[in-house]
């Protein structure tokens, strides 16, 4: 997933898919799916928009579900709708918990924040043996020339996202969009030795703030794989 591609507010169930028109593409069909739209709207609010929308967020990133559902964009959405999206999300983007004090339901995005979340549940990866054998950032061929020169940027987010494997690896749930056509494999031990930090999120995504400028420079690119229409290595220069 490109680190700077944040989600934007999405229309929600009740205004979707009722025009009777046949979707023109698979992506448009997915965007008209109420659960997909709800997932995208939750992602935006919990990762980027909570403060601007007046929501109180705990140090570990949780927000009261009732407060989220009070926003106009979630009109007509029930707690059961939210629970279903959380439970069925293949990438485990969200977590639910009862509030530690009074037990009311709270929700968090597990990673992808541009908001500062000081106690997000991240596991530091301190030794080369802590790192996955493969750490790959998914992007698009059109972005590769610029990335090849300047490196990966966290852009507006707190971290650069890396999948703990390549597309098709059965254990990889999140960290890379399914339509990415380039995977940049990072030399984790080399970056770690140079002081680059890595963390594992609650849903298994590997996160890195990059260097002091927020970049993973090209010197840490181990290999670059074009994923489609067929897999082949791309030159690093």
Core attributes:
four-stranded antiparallel β-sheet; globular; alpha+beta; 237 residues; Arc Repressor Mutant, subunit A; 2 domains; ADP-ribosylation fold; disordered N terminus; 21% helix
Description:
This protein has helices at residues 26-31, 34-49, 65-69, 79-88, 144-150, 188-193; strands at 63-64, 94-98, 105-109, 123-124, 136-139, 152-153, 160-162, 182-186, 199-200, 206-208, 215-216, 221-226, 232-233. With 237 residues, it is of the alpha+beta class. It has 2 domains: 34-109, Orthogonal Bundle (Arc Repressor Mutant, subunit A), CATH 1.10.10.970; 124-234, ADP-ribosylation fold (Alpha-Beta Barrel). A 4-stranded antiparallel beta sheet has the order 4-9-10-7, with no helix packed on it. Helix 2 (34-49) packs across helix 4. The longest helix is centred in the N-terminal third of the chain and has 16 residues, at 34-49. Pfam families: PTS_2-RNA. Residues 19-29 have a biased composition (Basic residues). This is 2'-phosphotransferase.
